[in-house]
Write a sequence for this structure.
C-alpha cells in the first residue's frame, strides 16, 4: 500500500470539508492520501465528491439508531477502515457519535471539526447556538475525538466574527469557509508528525 499517510474520511453531508482536504492534498499541501470515504447516508454529497475524484466511496447502512451506529454497522465501518490500513480517521460532518469499540480500534487517531470555538457550543447547530447566545466571536475547532461529545483535545482553532445582520445560514457559511482553511492545516501537521499530545494539550507546529 506504499508508505503515504492514509486518511479515512467519514461524512454524512455535502462534503465541502472533504473537498477542501482533497484539494489541499492535490496541491501538495498535505503529505497524505485519502484511502477511503464512508458515509451513513446513501445520498450524501460527500460520496459523489469522492467518486468524482476516483476515491473509493461507500455507503454503510447505520442500523436502527438515530445518533449512533448499531453493532453491525460499527463492525462494518471498522472493517472497511482497517482493510485499507488508515493512519487517521477524519470526521467531516459525520452526524453520529462514535463509541466504545470504534474508539478503541483507532485510539488517538480520530479527528473532528466542529463549527464553534470549543468548549463553547458543543453539539448540534453550534452556529445557531452562538447567534442565540449573542457572542461576537465564534469560529471552528479541530480536535481529537474522545468518548464525549466535541470534548477531545484541541488541535487548532480559527475565529470568525458574528455580524449584526447575520442569519444562522450566513454565519454557518462564514464558519465553513474558516473550516476549509483550518482542517487541511491541522491534518497536514498530523501527517508530518509535527504535533504531540500531553494530557489535554496538543503541542508543536499547528495552526
Ligand atoms: C461542518 O459545518 C462541520 O463543522 C460539521 O458538519 C459540517 C460539515 O459540512 N461538523 P460538509 O459536509 O463538510 O460540507
Amino acid at each position: 500500500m506504499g508508505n503515504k499517510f492514509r486518511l479515512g474520511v467519514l461524512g454524512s453531508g455535502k462534503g465541502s470539508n472533504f473537498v477542501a482536504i482533497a484539494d489541499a492534498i492535490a496541491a501538495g499541501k498535505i503529505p497524505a492520501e485519502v484511502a477511503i470515504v464512508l458515509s451513513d447516508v446513501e445520498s450524501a454529497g460527500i460520496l459523489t465528491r469522492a467518486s468524482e475524484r476516483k476515491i473509493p466511496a461507500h455507503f454503510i447502512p447505520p442500523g436502527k439508531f438515530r445518533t449512533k451506529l448499531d453493532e453491525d454497522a460499527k463492525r462494518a465501518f471498522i472493517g472497511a477502515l482497517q482493510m485499507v490500513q488508515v493512519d487517521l480517521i477524519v470526521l467531516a460532518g459525520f452526524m453520529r457519535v462514535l463509541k466504545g469499540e470504534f474508539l478503541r480500534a483507532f485510539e488517538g487517531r480520530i479527528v473532528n471539526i466542529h463549527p464553534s470555538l470549543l468548549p463553547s457550543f458543543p453539539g448540534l447547530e453550534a452556529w445557531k447556538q452562538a447567534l442565540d447566545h449573542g457572542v461576537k466571536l465564534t469560529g471552528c475547532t479541530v480536535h481529537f475525538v474522545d468518548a464525549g461529545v466535541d470534548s477531545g483535545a484541541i488541535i487548532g482553532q480559527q475565529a470568525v466574527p458574528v455580524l449584526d445582520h447575520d442569519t444562522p445560514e450566513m454565519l454557518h457559511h462564514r464558519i465553513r469557509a474558516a473550516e476549509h482553511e483550518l482542517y487541511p492545516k491541522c491534518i497536514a501537521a498530523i501527517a508530518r508528525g509535527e504535533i504531540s499530545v500531553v494530557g489535554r494539550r496538543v503541542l508543536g507546529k499547528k495552526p
